[in-house]
Amino acid sequence: MAEPLPLGANGAPAAPTYTPRYIDIGINLADPIFRGRYHGKSRHPDDLAAVVGRAVEVGCTKLIVTGSSFKSSRDALKLAQEFPGTVFSTAGVHPCSSSIFSPSHHKHHDESQSEGEGDAEPEHTPACDPDPTKPIPDGDGVDLARSERIIADLATLIHDARQPSLSSSSPPHLVAFGEFGLDYDRLHYCSREVQLHSFAAQLALAASLSPQLPLFLHSRAAHDDFVRLLKEAFGPRLERLEKGGVVHSFTGTVAEMQELAELGLYIGVNGCSFKTEENCAVVKEIGLSRVMLETDGPWCEVRPSHEGWKYLVEFEVKAKEARLAAEAEAAKAAAAAATDAAADASDSGTATPGGTEKPRRHRKWRNPPPQQPQPRGRNQKKEPDVPERYKTVKKEKWEEGAMVKGRNEPCTIDRIAKIVAGIKGVSVEEVCEAAWANTVKVFGVDS
Ligand SMILES: [Zn+2]
């Protein structure tokens, strides 16, 4: 079922119309879940093209697909080649994928993980929830020879991915270095010491590129180390960071956000940024000149339990009120026109055949305006607080054209914009246009 169009649409005469446009700066479309594969098992047909189609349909016409390991960076690049000008990619090693730098890692870092029977777990991008239960302790050290090979291979991957757009005017495929950074909320994937090494080694590579790439950064519960390593690589004011960068999926404090903004970095906001009242208070302080929007799908959807949900409900209530008012206005105008037409008909009926027309009576209301449309039947299912533009089904009951429950998609990015607008007390248009301009400026995705 179609979601009501934005305010001012539906033919409302005087209301201003704005068609929102979005760039999802962080979408993990390389995750096998978008091919219908969940934990190594195929649950439904590959519907990636439909996911991209739904995104474009809602106005999310640019998708920056996250590379968070060698495999996902290569897969993201393939998607960028498949959907040129719509999909763009990043390449890097996520802190949660950084155990490849550890001496206890037994597979080759660039091994293409097969999803075949009996093989390793397929590579899902790590979900956004913290897990403090089983942290991998420090002390294992880093395999420096392996690290050198990883960085050399990453440099080659990036070099090869950039060649077509550096040597021609075709749209770029690879637009950022990353996702990389630090995540101390999820030490069960990789120890702190290995994460620190992975981040520093990749920062050194990012700084050595010519020209540099903008950075797509991840920082969770690690702010001080994160900023320290950035400054070590790019100078105390990040003055050697040529193309800037974004710290995505931001969940830190106001002071941390401000420090990043003062360093010239942008702040990426998704469903995880609205979980608590404190989270929302931070979002309120992000300047429009610093904000970028993302879904981080298949993860980080906005849930009714999140603090930010209430802004979504508030938006929908206001939108419905405005829509009803516009409909009432249109009905009133239609009634007036109908009355006038009736008057005209009766006027012409009394005209003298062949003679001069009688002067027309002054047009005025003769009947009260028609009643508002009756409310729907009582037995009808209650409308949800926040309407869903697309039907959502469980993966076991997958059907064409439907979204899958629990698998966040870029077509939900309007929710992020609406919540940011609600929290900041500005219009959706202001949020969308600011985020669009910031994203185009940093990642150059408009060419
Ligand atoms: Zn991330």
Automatic annotation (TrEMBL):
An MF annotation (GO) of this entry: 3'-5'-DNA exonuclease activity
Region spans: Disordered: 99-142, 341-393
Gene Ontology cellular component annotations, sorted alphabetically: cytosol
Low complexity bias locations: 341-351
Matching Gene3D superfamilies: Metal-dependent hydrolases
Ranges of Basic and acidic residues composition bias in the record: 380-393
InterPro entries: DNase_TatD-rel_CS, Metal_Hydrolase, TatD-like, TatD-type_Hydrolase
Similarity comment: Belongs to the metallo-dependent hydrolases superfamily. TatD-type hydrolase family.
The protein's name in its UniProt record: Uncharacterized protein
Keywords recorded for this protein, A-Z: Hydrolase, Metal-binding, Nuclease
UniProt-listed PROSITE patterns: TATD_2
Pfam families per the UniProt record, alphabetical: TatD_DNase
